[in-house]
Design goal:
GO terms for molecular function: 2-oxopent-4-enoate hydratase activity. By secondary structure, this protein is an alpha+beta fold. The protein contains six helices and twelve strands. It has one domain: Fumarylacetoacetase-like, C-terminal domain (Fumarylacetoacetate hydrolase, domain 2, Alpha-Beta Complex). The strands form two sheets. Strands 1, 2, 4, 5, 6, 9 and 10 form a seven-stranded mixed β-sheet that branches. It has a five-stranded mixed β-sheet with strand order 3-12-11-7-8, with no helix packed on it. Strand 7 and strand 8 form a beta hairpin. The structure holds 2-oxoadipic acid and magnesium ion. The site of magnesium ion has 9 residues, from strand 1, strand 4 and strand 5.
Length: about 250
């Protein structure tokens, strides 16, 4: 399953849900498939650079018909270094405004407090995630989406990161424009009431299999608004108030 998923991720090929063949797959097994998929990226010389949380808002869980948060793995090859998204090898990408935490001290366990997370956070960046489920119609069950690395495809960070005390992250308003029209807006609190809670939740989930957030890792905390479908020729501007703006050209 991992080799099929890895190939479809790499080439942007649509596939049937894996649960059609393996309806009894457990969450643990799905994370194992995810881990083995990313091992195949590593075998090709790619490197893991962090984690992403997904489905961290009730609205997002409802719209995807899944009832709990999930995590995925981020690799170097997913990181965009220029604000250009090539449609080549993508299926039906959607863009989400997020925050990315840059962690500089290991975070591990299911007992973390807010203070522990902030002590281990070097900077927070405004960020965009591009998700691209490999499943037809962007439709999946919990275990399907976990096996497909939580729909991870690409991500891009803002030019500048900010120290934890810079602002109240739950009250930052994010507004997304596509081709000049406002399409979505939301506040940081859409992410589990406060983006910092997403890191606590991630650490808890990782701890079930003895994993942790390592120094130097980036964590995408989850979408602040609904994800927006994009197509070739689109131009996105995403405004993060005093944190600045992120742009993306879809080519
Ligand atoms: C799952 C990934 C969702 C987020 O930030 O909520 C996600 C999906 O909706 O395909 O990345
Ligand atoms: Mg996301």
């Amino acid at each position: 399953m991992a080799s099929e998923i890895e190939e479809n991720q790499r080439n942007g090929i649509e596939m049937e849900k894996v649960t059609l063949k393996y309806p009894k797959m457990t969450v643990e097994e799905a994370y194992d498939v995810q881990s083995q998929t990313i091992q195949r990226y590593r075998d090709r010389g790619d490197e893991m650079v962090g984690w992403k949380m997904g489905l961290t808002s009730v609205a997002k869980q409802k719209s995807m018909n899944v009832e709990e948060p999930i995590y995925g793995r981020l690799t170097n090859s997913m990181k965009l270094s220029t604000p250009t998204l090539k449609m080549e090898n993508l299926i039906h990408p959607k863009v989400e405004p997020e925050f990315a935490f840059l962690i500089n001290k290991e975070l591990k366990g299911d007992q973390l407090q807010v203070k522990d997370v902030w002590e281990a956070t070097k900077e927070v960046y405004p960020a965009l995630e591009i998700i691209d489920s490999r499943y037809k119609n962007f439709s999946f069950t919990l275990t399907d989406v976990i096996a497909d690395n939580a729909s991870s495809s690409k991500f891009i960070l803002g030019k500048e990161g900010f120290p934890p005390e810079y602002t109240d992250w739950d009250n930052v308003k994010v507004t997304m424009f596509v081709n000049g029209d406002e399409v979505q807006s939301g506040y940081g609190k859409a992410v589990l009431d406060h983006p910092v809670n997403s890191i606590i939740e991630l650490s808890k989930m990782l701890n079930r299999t003895g994993l942790s957030i390592k120094p130097g890792m980036i964590v995408l905390v989850g979408a602040i608004t609904e994800a927006v479908s994009v197509k070739k020729g689109d131009y996105l501007e995403v405004n993060y108030e005093t944190l600045g703006q992120l742009n993306l050209n879809v080519t």
